[in-house]
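Sample 3 of the quickstart, ligand guanosine-5'-monophosphate:
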Amino acid sequence: MGMLKSSLAFLVLAFAFFLCFIMSAGDGSYDYFQFVQQWPPTNCRVRKRPCSKPRPLQNFTIHGLWPSNYSNPTMPSKCTGSQFKKENVYPQLRSKLKISWPDVESGNDTRFWESEWNKHGRCSEQTLNQVKYFQRSHAMWRSHNVTEILRNASIVPHPTQTWTYSDIVSPIKAATKRTPLLRCKRDPTTNTELLHEVVFCYDYKAKIQIDCNRTAGYPNPQAISFQ
Ligand code: 5GP
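Result:
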């Protein structure tokens, strides 16, 4: 009888742990935010289909604001928050986002905002509702101009020159006083590592920028190309 009781207790406990695990994957629990900016020419170079614009924008634009977990930075995602409502992107906000957060691949900005909100934004709805999520993202984009920071350090698009990871991180760190993260994409035709994303990390409330040290990055390539 005692044996049966303890087996039952064990089963109940195991099931409770299992439930917690499943729920934490899709609910709004997260530790910090990744604010991800991308270099549009890299999107267009590695993409199988051409981008909608013949010449991609030559400045870093927003990819997304992602609530993330230290144990698994790609989670949470696709949570049970409210779905995107395009009325929340009111006209004045819309005209700002069209500059800071364009769809650099297919040119459908609203659809891009919708997919980012539905996949990431609604996982932190308890902190930032939809209006605040987009307002805050735009404010983050405005607070540091990555393109200008790199230009001031003579890091400008070049067909053959390469930089080390720290060459690129150093001026950004100096300007923002926080460690960013870089992500690259391999160019399938030339096998070079192209700078693709610069990530800033923010605290749980998306108010204070923090170091991205605790976040898994990309294995640092020896030579990074910026084209
Ligand atoms: P995530 O879905 O995790 O936010 O980011 C990955 C996806 O975002 C990829 O499928 C990538 O193609 C997409 N993505 C990145 N930039 C853009 C963009 O400017 N427009 C569109 N439509 N998708 C993008």
